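Hi D.,

Good news: the full-assembly prediction came through. Inputs first.
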Amino acid sequence: MFPKIDGERLWASIQDLAKVGAYTDSVSGLVGVNRLALTDADRDGRRLVRGWFEAAGLEVRVDRIGNTYGVRRGRRRDLARIMAGSHIDSVPTGGAFDGCLGVLGALEVVRTLNDAGLSTDRDLEIGFFTDEEGARFGTDMLGSATACGRLPIETAYGLADKDGTTVKGELERIGFLGPAPERVTPPAAYVECHVEQGPILATRGRDLGAVVGVQAISWYELTLEGKSAHAGTTPMGLRKDAGLVASRINVELHRMATSGVYGAEMRATMGRFDPVPDRVNIVPGRVICTVDLRNPDDAAMARAEADLFGFLKALAAETGVAITWRQTAQTHSVKFSEVVLSVITARMEAHGLSYERILSGAGHDAQEFAAICPTAMIFVPGLYDGISHNPREYSTPEACARGVQILCETMLELSKT
Amino acid sequence: MFPKIDGERLWASIQDLAKVGAYTDSVSGLVGVNRLALTDADRDGRRLVRGWFEAAGLEVRVDRIGNTYGVRRGRRRDLARIMAGSHIDSVPTGGAFDGCLGVLGALEVVRTLNDAGLSTDRDLEIGFFTDEEGARFGTDMLGSATACGRLPIETAYGLADKDGTTVKGELERIGFLGPAPERVTPPAAYVECHVEQGPILATRGRDLGAVVGVQAISWYELTLEGKSAHAGTTPMGLRKDAGLVASRINVELHRMATSGVYGAEMRATMGRFDPVPDRVNIVPGRVICTVDLRNPDDAAMARAEADLFGFLKALAAETGVAITWRQTAQTHSVKFSEVVLSVITARMEAHGLSYERILSGAGHDAQEFAAICPTAMIFVPGLYDGISHNPREYSTPEACARGVQILCETMLELSKT
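Then the structure:
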């Protein structure tokens, strides 16, 4: 009933694209990928994939924010299309799979249908979105957020990297400032295949994940102002140790996240911790640190934030260390479509695959589409605890093929009228 | 009975010496002192002070490690001399008082006796010691430790800075590789006046401090090896968060130091805290951090260290984060002479000064002399919580004069036969 995708062709495409922007990590010696958005490497990657879209017979268009789409026409042009996509930009120290699996997986679906001579009722549209990572211009999901209407294009155009170079200027420079309107007509459904970028599927021995939504994310940068002091001459009772206060916040974050009070899926991380002056015999007078909160439930997230702020105020009063904070990122939780998920899980079950209904801890282009159409995602497990944004990022050829087979079958099911 | 020292002359000398190696701090705009040991600035400072020694009629000698002494002859050359001294080298971002007050204070004592036409029974000897700070060659108390026999001169000569330049080469280059034997004959007593470099005297409203000893110091560098992980996708239970473990160590250090179990004067500080990769959305996989322990009692210090190691082992077992440590500095506690202290405090009481018997949290040249002769120190309070190793370091002219007056009277008392 369903054609079988060509796992070897998929793998070869992933490896070919990974050569663009490849670099050798100086520490590990591993080969990683650096295709930061709108750089020359990103341009070269875009040209390669656009060429593959064209070679697959797709009607290709580039929109005004650089999102690049390819349409495979169906029999019924009066019906809304089925979309699949992801991104091909990377963080500066990325791997071969993040984003690329979704784009090249969707391409493999098209190639498979072409080889099998299969047509669909609905149009199928695949694409890659500009700067999903946000690693250069500071705003992730840049292209898909513009396409789906959350981010005004003039705002997106005006974003600049640390050298002051703007998104619009770079789009023009690399030849991807397209003429097509940036706002998409809502498709009938959007499906995205992506590597998990986490350890859950591997830890639980699952073949694939059916992604039921994306966690709310809230980031804060905290500034703790105590008083630098000599570690030898300053009695404990006369200190305002910003490092100790930051440590207490870190311990409290862990207590909160594991308390169950904010649900079983609450996560809290202090990733940055920068004391000043950072010397063995000086009590740190200042610390800049960060808090990363995740929760699948917006209300639970709001309660966690309020409790954290209360803790910070009490801690500042107790210790005399001034604590200020500013939110540096916030996205609300996203729930994916149970209709699309039911198709995905039915296809997984038909193949006898083990799967897990899983929340995404990272942001994805799919969350932008969830605002305008039924949307869901398929997660492919990665080795090494699903490490990502790292040259070690690796999913096996078999796992990748498994995920794309489900993507293919899901698109075919959804394209039926 | 006792001559009065000239506070204005003392202050002028301190300010004149501070011009050598003066720099303007780019952040605060304050003028600080950078006379790192055996640099050109240190050479210029040495020349200035040696010139003052000579102008005061002292018999000057430079020894083989660059320590520079001036002797004022007494009537009884068969008796052991009374010594006073300190250092004139600084950390790269130092102030005008650290060390210099003790050297120029001793010089002011000589000048005062000269002006008053007073002779003493015993010889008086003053001096400045090479590289007390250890900020360039990594070994503090370099000159005094060599003079008092703890550090072999060949070891001292071979020490190199980060550019590979050696102590001996630099001594030669700046013209302070002297001919005098480096080992001193034990004097009858050694007295050192120094800024407190801490907040205790100012906080308790004391005029001066009578320093009863130096705390034991123990430094460790800890390496915590957990696992870097995505903050959004990695459940709390699957983490090996090196940052959280470092934070728990920091909290435990504070608990230990304030528990009273290791005495009331136990101090513990985590000054460095360097997570890798130090990014908002990545669980730190590695942390390098430091522990600075101080205790006036060697046995209590040993108990604290043993308890800390036990805690680290249990914490590593509990969390799966590997913790290794190496000791980067260790000095044992020093008790100063109650005989010398009784003279110091009697002179303070005679002037109606308020004083505190105080432990030094920092190391000083006096601790080396404590191993070979009766020794004690006088502490002068500093403003701004006694901040030191910083351009803000400041003790008032009145406080400096007060300390040096007591130094003068103590030396005169001790020089009596």
